[in-house]
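Data availability excerpt. The first of two example chains:
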Amino acid sequence: MNRSFLANTRLLAGIVSAIIAPIIVLAVAKQACAQSATVPYPKMAAMDQYLMTQDAEVAMARSAAPESVSKDADVLVLDRNGYRTAIKGSNGFVCAVQRSWTAGIDDPDFWNPKLRAPICLNPPAVRSFLPRVVKRTQLVLDGKTKEQLSAAMKAAFEAKEIPAIEPEAMGFMLSKQGYLGDQNGHWHPHIMIYVPQAEPTGWGANLPGSQIFGASDHTDRLSVFFIPVPKWSDGSADSGDSGSH
């Protein structure tokens, strides 16, 4: 990996908040922005700004993983009623494009209508992580504020409506097409690992020289680890440029 890439990864080692989506790496390198007195996206935009055409969304969702994975995966698309299955697959994976509200509650991009975070989840993540994405989306479409969403997620966990994260839950985020926020652009291709809430340093994450980044999300009761990899889903090498695109 080139010097630019290593410099970027060292810069990101101070992560203190995370998405559940995997979005994108929606929490990486945003702490300084979160401290700003000016909130760039103080409320939800018009719903149309978060939507895509079905064909475009299917293509973007599939770009999250190598074709060997995504071609046989279920593909979800978002409409005004929530996520629905546009394509039924056969390998147990699910590809989707997450929106901004899967970010941490205090993330400055929480309502950013430009954000698109393509991800392909393996079967354990489909069963145990995807319900968090679906629940958050339902709450947002029901008009909930961030505070109401947080309270509703807590109630859902206490009622055991949302399962605990399963072992081996992971997701591919290898898309060149995504936009993970105004600070990150599409960052680097990476793998997401989901675990029950844990101290990231126990995984060697966020330590000097480590190329593993991690954080915990109390709203979704999990920790997520971001592991950069050298190639995008199309096989091309990461240039090391993590700026906005």
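And the second chain:
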Amino acid sequence: MAITTMLRNTKDTGHPFRYEIWQLFTVNTWELAIADFLMVATTSISLPLQKLFRRTNIFRWKNTGVIIQSLYQAFWFSIWVAVPFHFEWTWTAQVFLVLHTLTLLMKMHSYSFYNGHLSEAERRLKALDQPNTTSQEPAYQYPDAGHTPALNGKRLSEEKQEEDKSELAHVREDLALELVSPLGNQTYPKNLTWRNYIDFIFCPTLCYELEYPRTSHIRWDQLAYKVLAVFGVIFLLTITSEEFILPVLQVSAIRIQTASSASDTMLVLAESISMLLFPFMITFLLVFLVIFEYVLGAFAEMTCFADRHFYSDWWNSTDWLEFSREWNIPVHHFFRRHVYSASRPHIGRPMATLITFLISAIGHEIVMACITKKIRGYGFLAQMSQLPIVMIQRTRWVRGKRVLNNAAFWCSMILGLSMICSLYVLV
């Protein structure tokens, strides 16, 4: 497809490309690089804040530290989401910066809240030296990030505890285990270093841990292959967008503006959706491939990050909850650990699931607003509608019919991508 497209363009225009999207990659390059560097650098305030929360009682994590960190995250996110709009960057630069902003926001949140939890565990462990004045309630065990499934998080040694130990001894041991990495090579607070923080920023994960499984060395041939593949897939994405998506949207936009009735507008919209079914599906698959196979794979190779399980067989999904778990495992682990597990004890499982979907839908809506410079809510409504659809699919009349549910999933996926993008651009 790419070869024949370039041959046709060369014959018709003398150039292999249309240059409409290619030129966007060279606009705002230096501004984007500087802004991205400053954005990454401003997340690093989390490290000195954690040291402050650990050392002083005035700014203790559970009292004041949580508020300070949360306010800073909200301020930081607001600034960097507004930057590309303020400078009126191209949509390609906007999408890159917003996606990186969302990624770093999750990293910063995970780093701060996990280390904040560890600072409280350390305080409580020290306070057990005066057991008469210290609470002996069970130690809170932070949800694992899924990087060490063979160790079942951190708790293998708990099964070996002696039954005749006192309750105080159990609490002390649980707190001590909480301050040690699952692999046993790193302890809190020795992890509060710049080297550890920078390593976490580059690791292809959103959930902070004291230690990650690592490979023995960098495979340079695999790294070169993945870097080359990133540019190859971007090339295919650009060809697909320029030749099969933009022309349809441009013509449809003109036809909708000149439509004389609502029925004519709906017909143009339906025709554009039908013509974009295949191109948008190809675009989605290429975006998935470049992010989860090549970009994350390249960073995993550079950092010797051993957990390469970035996705599962989402194409066999039978409902949207299964898809949300399988297609983006790093984000799924983050939401399960820092949103769902954090809120479930307070509001229950159904509301925790609703809050998780709500935050995810808001994030997707922000990305679509950056691409189209419109706030319409189509993507938000589509994602939130997945919950009642899942309830229907899990009724006794539909549940268990995997082929039917998988076919329904693919029909809605193929139609939904084209329909949502057409609505954002044309309406």
